[in-house]
Amino acid sequence: MTNKIAIVGAGISGLTLGTMLQEKGIDVQVFDKGRGVGGRMSSRRTDWGYIDHGTQYFGLTNSDFRKFLNNYGEVLLPWKGKFATWEKGTFLEDNSTQIRYVPTKAMNHLCKYLGGDITVKLDTRIVKLVKKAQGWTLVDQHDNSYPNFDCVVITAPPAQTLDLLASHTTITEKFSDIQMLPCYSLMIIPEVKMNLPFDGTKFVHPVLGWVSNNDSKPLRQNSGAIVIQSNFNFAQNNLNTDKEKVTQTILEATETVFDIKFPSYNYKSLHLWRYALPAQPNSLQSKHIRYFACTFGYISFN
Question: What is the pTM of this model?
Answer without folding.
Answer: 0.86
